[in-house]
Design brief:
This protein is of the alpha+beta class. It contains nine helices and twelve strands. It has helices at 3-16, 24-30, 35-46, 50-68, 73-79, 85-96, 100-106, 151-169, 240-255, and strands spanning 123-124, 127-137, 140-144, 147-150, 176-177, 181-190, 195-204, 215-219, 222-231, 261-263, 269-274, 283-293. The longest helix has 19 residues, at 50-68.
């Protein structure tokens, strides 16, 4: 099953089964996935462990009974899948900072975990796009093999170029940081001449040892918008249509007058793929582009 409908169904199943002691194991059996693949996919998508999310949703849902009924706490605990009142109370205190009994008496305001949702706009050919999230990217150095790409063939060429660099050329680079991470940098984008520079690359400690035929560059500390694409295939197998949809979706933010930030994806951006996280079924591409806050 593709990531979008799979994740959507998982979220719905969790909500339907909060009183049925649902777990990552039972979900993995339901969808014929290994449990480790399911855990990694959920982490990819939502940046949190599925077990922690289920626990937080279960405890948040239990507040309805705790605050709106006179049920005994042991009965609430059993109803929501806890074997003992003590285990429910310990989990409750870790989640909300006070015991169920104290919350019932104090009526203190607590922060809950609302249900996660996937928006229709996240759906790209049944793959998933999340973002933007705003992050500060510290300065880093790259060494790679430079290419000048015409716009009309860039997306098709990028994946072949990236795969060739990763499999054949990366080994010539020394002092690599994060050897499982691929970075594809698009820069010097010339809209008038309709080409851009593309650097399939790896992060290095410094630029003191650039091999012949390679190029080194530095990405300065920047406030960036990060988008995350989750797909069910390797990066080099993304088709051009899906890649174009991904970047067309990102570019909507460039032209959105209500959006608070200026995105510079038509000037510079980089893709980041951590192959150490690839689980055999799903992988993640992160796209970063510098932003500045719009002046009112």
């Amino acid at each position: 099953m593709k990531p979008y409908p799979l994740l959507e169904n998982i979220l719905l199943d969790i909500e339907k089964s909060l009183k049925k002691n649902i777990t990552a194991f039972t979900l993995s059996k339901r969808y014929n996935l290994s449990e480790i693949h399911l855990r990694r996919l959920f982490n990819f998508a939502f940046n949190r462990p599925i077990a922690g999310y289920i626990r937080s949703r279960t405890l948040s849902e239990s507040l309805n009974d705790l605050l709106h009924t006179d049920k005994n706490i042991i009965d609430i605990a059993l109803e929501y899948g806890f074997s003992f009142e003590n285990s429910y109370s310990r989990s409750f205190k870790r989640e909300f900072g006070l015991s169920p009994d104290n919350l019932r008496k104090s009526r203190q305001i607590v922060k809950i975990q609302p249900p996660l949702h996937l928006l229709v706009d996240n759906n790209l050919d049944d793959n998933v796009l999340f973002g933007p999230e705003f992050v500060v990217v510290p300065k880093f150095h790259l060494i790679g093999k430079p290419h000048q790409l015409p716009f009309e063939t860039a997306q098709k060429s990028i994946y072949n170029i990236g795969a060739h660099f990763w499999l054949n050329e990366r080994r010539h680079v020394k002092k690599i940081i994060n050897p499982d991470v691929y970075i594809g940098l698009n820069y010097n984008i010339n809209n008038e001449k309709k080409y851009s520079e593309y650097l399939p690359s790896v992060q290095v400690q410094n630029l003191s040892d650039v091999p012949s035929g390679f190029s080194g560059t530095t990405f300065d500390t920047s406030m960036c918008a990060r988008f995350r694409f989750i797909g069910q295939h390797r990066n080099k197998e993304i088709n051009v249509e899906t890649a174009n949809k991904m970047y067309d979706t990102i570019r909507k933010y460039v032209n959105d007058e209500k959006f608070k930030y200026n995105l510079y994806i038509d000037k510079v951006y980089f893709e980041r793929i951590d192959w150490n996280k690839y689980n055999g079924n799903f992988f993640q591409v992160e796209c970063f582009t510098p932003v500045t806050e719009k002046i009112a």
